[in-house]
Amino acid sequence: MELLNGIFTLFRGDRSTAKKPVDTSVTPRTYGRFVSLGANPLNVATVYSCIDLLSDSVANLPMHYKKLKGGIFEDDLSDRMHYLLNVQPCNDMNAFDFWKTLVIHLHVKGNAYVLPIWDYVNPGLLELRLLDPTQVNHDKTSGAYTVSNAGSVLNGVYSEEEIIHVKNFSLDGKIGISTLEYARITLDIASSGDGETLKRFENGGNSKGIVSNDTSVRGFGEYQDTELEKTAIDIDAKFKGGANTVSLPGQVQYHQLSMSSSDMQFLESRKFTVRDICRFFRVHPSFVFDDTSNNYKSAENASTAFLSTTLNPLLRKIEVEFLRKLVSADLAHKRKFEFNREALYAMDLAGKVSYQSQTIATGLYTVNEWRAKENKPPVEGGDRVLVSANLKGINEIITEAQSE
Q1: What are phi and psi of 286, to 5 degrees?
Q2: Angle 341-83-375 from CA coordinates, rounded to 5°
Q3: What is the pLDDT of residue 249?
Q4: What pLDDT is stored for residue 27 in this prediction?
Q5: Nearest to 65 by CA among 44, 40, 89, 31
Q6: Element housing 129 (H / E)
Q7: What is the pTM of this model?
């Protein structure tokens, strides 16, 4: 009977140790590991700088809640939504911290979750609660979200419509994947480089080597093994003590083993790693203070590319998700969430004036409309729409055309 059981077990195999095939087409490069500096990727300067730049860029922009009136979307300042989006989304967080933390969650964890708290007595939105992504589990099959926060009244299971879910890069459109997961190997290299730099500064750049005797004498001659060991300890202590030149007794020879930074292309590798990390975050190296742009034109092109290909898709992603979850389907075409992209020129005064002049010259804005945005009183004649033909009134051009 035992023989039959043994044969049956042999053919059945051990299911507990059987390896399941892995679909590498949908598996990020997670086989790397953060090898130093506390295993925290934010300890890598380039990663910290990229995430800080992206989160600050979003948090700096006001979010407008607009309603359709007379064919034009206008700010609805009377709605509580405006206060929540721009002043205080919840009791323990202001609007800047809210948007900044949301973007950090997006890139570090891959997903950002916001729980709207509704007032069912007086219909309206009370709060926007930013949840910790590590305490939210999303079931892709049912679409349910399970919030598990010890001691919180927010614990429970929520439906798809009840949670605002902003995703990072996603392979299925349901769960986002952190940028750090795909950049794991590059971050390992960067962490290793930082760790190597720390070691070199800790020991003053001391070299490693072997102490031996003159090879013309077989064996160690007058130096026995113990004496060579003592000599090696003495030399090591002198190097650690800051000595640059050390004398060797008798026929002792010193053979260096460690490579210099230039030999192992250490500095060049660190420069390349900075740019490689920037590629994952779609941030130009000049934004993380890597000196790659030496002229004004290249810096201007980098800024334009960042706004159009990196920042704008991120803003659009947030706007659409908030509209989808906070506004019913029958009102979606009459409401709009929109970041004020004009605020990007807040500190670029030359660019701001140039943009204002062009919008006035093309008839998009009047002088008084821009003065109102700058908190300035209106001026007489400032409500006239102007065009670039010597900045004449548009009615004057029509009158001249009719007279001809």
Answers
A1: -65, -25
A2: 55
A3: 63
A4: 44
A5: 89
A6: strand 124-131
A7: 0.71
